[in-house]
Amino acid sequence: MAEREVDFADRMSDHEALMWNVEKDPWLNPSGGALALLDRPIDMDILRRQIRHGVAHLPRLYQRVVPGLGRLATPVWVPDAEFDLDYHVREIQLPAPGSEEQLRKLAAQLYAEPLDRTRPLWRFVAISGVEGGRGALYVLTHHAISDGIGQLRMAEMYQQLSRDEEPRPEIDLEGIIAAAVAAREPKQLGGDLGENLWATTTQSLGFVARRNLGIVRRAIGQAAIVPADPHRAVDAAQKVSKLASATLAQVGAATGEGASGSPLWAERSRHRHLEYAAVPIDDFKLACRALGGSVNDGFMAALAEAAFRYHDERNVSVDGFNSSFVVSTRTDNKAGGNAFTPVPVRLPARAESFRARIAEVHELLAEAKDRAASGSNIGNLSGLANLLPTSVVTRTARGQAAKLDFVTSNLRGASFPLYIAGAKTLWSAPMGPLAGTPVNVTALSYNGMLDMGLFIDPAAIDDPVAYRDYVQAAFEDLITEADLEPAKKSTNTSKKSTKKSTKKKSAKKKPAAKKKVAAKR
């Protein structure tokens, strides 16, 4: 694959720094992962060569984080002079019999191992021993490096378009990193570097002054610069408090409506469980269009239906579900980086049909997008939150996350097969960050299917397999409802037709019976 343009800043953005800071509470882990099932085990020599080339092209993958000056400056990315590729790229074997259930359980266990914050923030694990002679690849990347779209583009460094595609040429990665370390000027960056403390402090204070002045002016206007007026000073403090809450609500995608979350999904833990669901992407697109909505409308509608069925089967009454979806703000084609806004939305629990549900969801999502677009800039709000004590930030973030029932993301992947070191990717299960919520459902279109990773907190959703079944059934039923609608119209028309045409119409109804939608390739 052709190499994409990259443009990584030396410092974290305020948004990235907030995700870095809240990770001090393990419940709020912002890292994103993925599990790819492959038709055969990976050729490790080829994989390492591919990744060496990718790391050389994507400097963020050989950089570590250096804290800024106290809480006043965002952290700095610096080349890791002790970078060890073998630490980041590992190989393990799944115990016999190597079922897909075992594989998903292993992926959840691997996710529980925190990234070393003193090293570059990513990890690859090649997995062999999957039943049927298959293999797998587990990938974990900190959200401070990239969002989902950026990670998909970064993945091109180790993917191929055919099984026998020539691997990347050998590259002197160690030499490239050594040159980057030598070329770096600590006095210009303002990281926490003892050998140039005075220069570090001077540069940091200049950065801090510019950054914080901008944050204050844009976030709370003139209220922060009139301390001589006690009433306006109190008003300014109240605005800061409200903006801090809004920051964490927006960045954490918590609902802004104050509604409590599901009483059934109230518990939280650090434990994780991974499930996988899928439907044919073309069938789903056509169904959403036939029912009057977009793919994202149908995606959110099906998840709301699945949540309702889970509760209804357990005789738990709910009026609605607090959820969120992600809006990309990218305007380029670069790999890595973060450019997104999480948008909270409350979805109704009940609906007469998928058509009715999609119509309501479409309107709610449009309103939520408008509110997000007219609200405060997420970077400015993140900068304000970063000035608060970490304990305040994490406590508030936990409280906001406790109101959420599910968080989502919907990514567009390749419409054709991809290969990893000679192995064909069969499906991918994204593992989006829960950050204190019951479940993250991230969809990825790939090779004719809409793959969905259901990353679940089993303390919140205590029957993850049943939840997966409800999700699968909801997506299949949405497709089926759209498939049945033309047949219903044909039946109504046939009443006014001749007996001969009535027979023809009824014959056409047979394919409209609920079809079996394959969830696996």
Indicate the CATH architecture of the domain at 14-188. Answer: 2-Layer Sandwich
Low-pLDDT segments: 187-195, 197-228, 236-257, 487-520
CATH homology group of the domain at 14-188: Chloramphenicol acetyltransferase-like domain
- Going by helix content, strand content and strand pairing, the class is alpha+beta
Radius of gyration based on Cα positions: 25 Å
Helix content: 40-55%
Please tally the β strands and state the result: 15
Q: Please report which band the strand proportion falls in: under 5%, 5-15%, 15-25%, 25-35%, 35-45% or over 45%.
A: 15-25%
Structure overview:
The chain has 521 residues and is an alpha+beta fold. The chain has a domain at 14-188: Chloramphenicol Acetyltransferase. Helix content is 41%, strand content 19%. The protein contains 15 helices and 15 strands. The strands form 3 sheets. It has a 7-stranded mixed beta sheet with strand order 4-5-6-1-13-12-7, with helices on both faces. Strands 8-15-14-11-9-10 form a 6-stranded mixed beta sheet, sandwiched between helices. It has a two-stranded antiparallel sheet with strand order 2-3. A hairpin with a 2-residue loop joins strand 12 and strand 13. It is globular, with a radius of gyration of 25 Å. The model is unreliable at 187-195, 197-228, 236-257 and 487-520 (pLDDT under 50).
Q: Key terms for this structure?
A:
Chloramphenicol Acetyltransferase; alpha+beta; 521 residues; 6-stranded mixed sheet
Task: Please outline what is shown here.
The chain has helices at residues 14-22, 44-57, 85-88, 100-112, 148-154, 173-183, 197-220, 230-251, 281-290, 295-313, 354-374, 378-386, 390-401, 464-494, 499-508, and strands spanning 32-38, 63-66, 76-79, 89-93, 122-130, 134-141, 159-160, 273-280, 320-328, 340-348, 406-412, 419-420, 423-431, 439-446, 449-456.
